[in-house]
């Protein structure tokens, strides 16, 4: 307990005083405290966007992609310190944050929690979270997931196939600044990497992370992600919660399966973190008790969390279009139509990164009402049915909405769930369901412990593990417009669809398939509808298996008009009679399932087009987990993205709408135009079609060309470029200076900028470098650095961006796989300064010596 000694020395002294059984207790689940030696329990809590506790109210922060959109290390630092303080106050020693999964594909289900597509931005900002956590004695950061965790579909079995250069130059490169920030532990991922499971990976864990990168903490598995006891010998230091740990681990050591020298290293790593991150000197409350006490985060801490969450949401929001409509003038508006089924509830994704008990929530509706007061009439209309997991997990057109379906006098269809594949006997569950739209997978289990916030129906618990359930839906379909409709099914399994007693479609799909039939329907006429479905595809059962989707079917349509439902028609009337229409459009992303399309679900594209057609003052607020297609962009006057904005969502949206806050966020990911551009242009596979394939070989054929580098390589134009974001002013880039320094001194890139507008503006000045001076193929443009500057009207300033080459990010270098080393080629590289990766304002050059 001599604080003058370093963490390694203190850990060695403590280990020498411990018995073998006490050491083994460190690796129980949770760790067993040793009160007589002052050693705390190793208690950890998930939640990459706050403390994900079902027992404690905590601050729900904006999602990781929103944090990344700030392009500001100060905000992630504040988030890390706040989250660590909340974890400490309720007795946790470790917090599983941040999430740093590279956004390789816009289909990735967990991209909402992560930090974008560039290893420099996506490494420095999570590193700032770690540094924030470390500022609070008594809690260690547990960042996740090392590495290349870029797909949720079949995450327990898939194999990421890539070459060594791609691994080091893209995915490990992102983690180098995070590891340099010295988190107490790292979480290895579920999938295989180049053939071996990530937690059972000698090259990744021993040679790279602990060897080349010098990581001194311990590596912990994702949930039971160790393949075998050999994971310990392959670099993982704790496997849990299931598998070999605790007493079984001790026996493996005694049997020689795990060498004693390796076990001693594991013990040292855990104890070292306990000292390095202050646990031994600043014990979390109850850390020496075998049962965690029931505690609460203090009101003062939660009040501070509110303001951090608010600032992060404001600074992470991105203005994408503004035809002189924003900011709104509340004094000049008499009426607002607020449209969106999600405006009166908390918006977030699902899974381990979600916050079940946000301490305080201001809905978007509440935020706008509070801002405008009684002087403005606001009409709130849903426009669509609630979002649900299946909206993301199944591709294809929108589901048929509840407002044109009926059964027994209620909106929706009568559903009968059977525990057999033949619809035999009495159904175990019979109820009215708003839509035929299922595909929940593991999130059906998340729903039972509060991590699914959608108000849509849940899978009946009795069907979680049912091997081949059958379901029958029946009722009437009554369209509100006459014309030719494409009716169909998107599903995994087998189904038959009847309309007015005639079978119009029969589908037997061993992989997810979408089939439609064209039918002429008459407005106001009711048609009998029946669907018989069996979830009988190979590897389909069951959601509790973690990587199985379970029942998966959508009754869908493509109508001939945009105002195809009473819900949309109600929204159109509200918009027609309002001065301004504000449409809040969203999607529902999360763990264990990727999304099947970047199209907004639940027919929101049709809703937006229909509203914009009657009100030229339509503003769309996107609250999404990642990039979405915006085919109606030319039809609306304003568009901005708030991502999943956290508990202060109403305050954030209202302050941005009415100009109480300015926009300063920039996109941390490129936005594709459409699914076709993603699949056929970028060449990225849609993962949902492999949802029941137990041997997915995920080919990273793009190599180092991830994100904007791939667009550049193929000459494709994204909808919105990496780094894009508008402001309320015009910033002129006037001069560029490159100041080269010798030795270990950093080069300095200086950009002179001037605010030519009449309002204050915050500009993110971005620096990119061109292809490296080598015969090796390298990207034509890569992020090199950036800085934010606030300018008063007419103000001019120089922005100085130091370029330090000897940093963990390996700037101006490429990885030579043959020599197994980084190479910084000497010569001249182009330098680009601008407002985004595609908006280059000034160019220069830099000599690399």
TrEMBL record:
SMART domains: Fn3_like (SM01217), PA14 (SM00758)
Residues annotated as domain PA14: 408-571
A GO molecular function held by the record: hydrolase activity
Classification via Pfam families: Fn3-like (PF14310), Glyco_hydro_3 (PF00933), Glyco_hydro_3_C (PF01915), PA14 (PF07691)
Annotated keywords: Hydrolase
Database matches in InterPro entries: Cellulose_deg_GH3, Fn3-like, GH, Glyco_hydro_3_C, Glyco_hydro_3_C_sf, Glyco_hydro_3_N, Glyco_hydro_3_N_sf, Ig-like_fold
Similarity comment text for this entry: Belongs to the glycosyl hydrolase 3 family.
Protein name per its UniProtKB record: Glycoside hydrolase family 3 C-terminal domain-containing protein
Native species: Propioniciclava soli
């Amino acid at each position: 307990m001599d604080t003058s000694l370093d963490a390694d020395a203190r850990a060695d002294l403590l280990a020498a005083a411990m018995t073998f059984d006490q050491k083994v207790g460190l690796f129980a689940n949770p760790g067993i405290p040793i009160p007589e030696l002052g050693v705390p329990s190793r208690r950890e809590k998930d939640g990459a966007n706050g403390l994900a506790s079902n027992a404690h109210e905590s601050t729900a922060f904006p999602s990781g992609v929103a944090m990344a959109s700030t392009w500001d290390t100060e905000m992630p630092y504040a988030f890390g310190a706040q989250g660590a303080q909340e974890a400490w106050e309720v007795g946790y020693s470790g917090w599983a944050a941040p999430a740093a999964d590279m956004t390789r594909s816009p289909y990735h289900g967990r991209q909402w929690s992560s930090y974008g597509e560039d290893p420099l931005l996506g490494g420095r900002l999570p590193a700032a979270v770690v540094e924030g956590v470390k500022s609070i004695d008594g809690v260690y950061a547990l960042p996740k997931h090392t590495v290349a965790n870029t797909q949720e579909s079949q995450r327990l079995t898939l194999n990421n196939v890539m070459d060594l250069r791609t691994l080091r130059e893209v995915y490990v490169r992102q983690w180098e600044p995070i590891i340099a920030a010295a988190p107490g532990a790292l979480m290895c991922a579920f999938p295989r990497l180049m053939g071996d499971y990530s937690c059972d990976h000698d090259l990744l864990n021993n040679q790279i992370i602990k060897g080349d990168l010098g990581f001194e903490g311990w590596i912990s598995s994702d949930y039971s992600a160790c393949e075998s006891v050999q994971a310990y010998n392959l670099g993982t230091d704790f496997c849990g919660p299931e598998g070999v740990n605790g007493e079984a681990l001790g026996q493996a050591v005694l049997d020689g399966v795990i060498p004693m020298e390796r076990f001693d290293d594991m013990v040292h790593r855990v104890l070292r973190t306990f000292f390095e991150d202050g646990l031994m000197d600043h014990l979390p409350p109850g850390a020496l008790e075998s049962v965690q006490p029931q505690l609460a985060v203090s009101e003062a801490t939660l009040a501070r969390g509110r303001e951090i969450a608010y600032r992060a949401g404001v600074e992470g929001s991105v203005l994408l279009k503004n035809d002189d409509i924003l900011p709104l003038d509340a004094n000049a508006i008499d009426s607002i139509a607020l449209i969106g089924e999600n405006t009166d509830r908390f918006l977030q994704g699902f899974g381990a990164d979600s916050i079940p008990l946000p301490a305080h929530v201001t809905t978007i509706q509440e935020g706008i009402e509070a801002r405008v007061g009684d002087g403005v009439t606001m009409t709130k209309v849903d426009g669509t049915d609630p979002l649900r997991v299946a909206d993301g997990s199944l591709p294809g057109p929108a589901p048929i909405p509840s407002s044109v379906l009926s059964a027994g006098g209620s909106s929706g269809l009568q559903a009968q769930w059977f525990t057999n594949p033949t619809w035999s006997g009495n159904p175990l569950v019979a109820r009215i369901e708003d839509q035929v739209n299922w595909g929940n997978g593991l999130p059906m289990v998340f729903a039972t412990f509060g991590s699914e916030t959608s108000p849509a129906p849940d899978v009946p618990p009795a069907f979680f593990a049912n091997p081949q359930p059958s379901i029958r839906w029946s009722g009437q379909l009554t369209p509100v417009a006459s014309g030719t409709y494409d009716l169909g099914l998107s599903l995994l399994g087998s189904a038959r669809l009847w309309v007015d007693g005639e079978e119009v479609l029969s589908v037997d799909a061993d992989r997810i398939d979408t089939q439609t039939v064209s039918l002429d329907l008459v407005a106001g006429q009711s048609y009998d509808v029946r669907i018989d479905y069996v979830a009988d595809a190979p590897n389909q059962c069951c959601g509790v298996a973690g990587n199985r989707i379970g029942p998966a079917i959508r009754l869908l349509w493509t109508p001939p008009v945009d105002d195809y439902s009473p819900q949309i028609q109600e929204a159109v009337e509200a918009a027609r009679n309002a001065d301004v229409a504000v449409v809040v459009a969203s999607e529902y992303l999360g763990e264990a399932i990727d999304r099947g399309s970047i199209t907004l679900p639940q027919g929101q594209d049709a809703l937006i087009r229909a509203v914009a057609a009657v009100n030229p003052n339509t503003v769309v607020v996107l609250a999404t987990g990642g990039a979405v297609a915006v085919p109606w962009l030319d039809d609306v006057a304003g568009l901005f993205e708030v991502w999943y904005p956290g508990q202060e969502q109403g305050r954030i949206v209202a302050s941005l709408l009415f100009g109480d806050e300015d926009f300063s966020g920039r996109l941390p990911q490129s936005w594709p135009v459409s699914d076709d551009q993603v699949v056929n242009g970028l060449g990225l596979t849609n993962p949902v079609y492999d949802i029941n394939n137990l041997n997915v070989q995920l080919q990273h054929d793009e190599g180092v060309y991830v994100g904007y580098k791939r667009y550049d390589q193929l000459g494709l134009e994204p909808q919105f470029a990496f780094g894009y974001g508008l402001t309320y002013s015009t910033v002129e880039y006037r001069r560029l200076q490159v100041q080269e320094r010798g030795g270990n001194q950093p080069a300095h890139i200086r950009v002179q900028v001037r605010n030519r507008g009449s309002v204050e503006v915050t500009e993110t000045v971005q620096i990119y470098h061109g292809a490296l001076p080598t015969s090796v193929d390298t990207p034509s443009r890569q992020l090199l650095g950036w800085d934010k500057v606030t300018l008063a009207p007419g103000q001019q300033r120089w922005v100085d961006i130091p370029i330090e080459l000897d940093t963990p990010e390996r700037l101006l270098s490429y990885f030579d796989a043959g020599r197994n080393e980084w190479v910084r080629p000497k010569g001249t590289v182009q330098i680009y300064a601008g407002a985004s990766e595609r908006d280059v304002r000034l160019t220069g050059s830099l000599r690399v010596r």
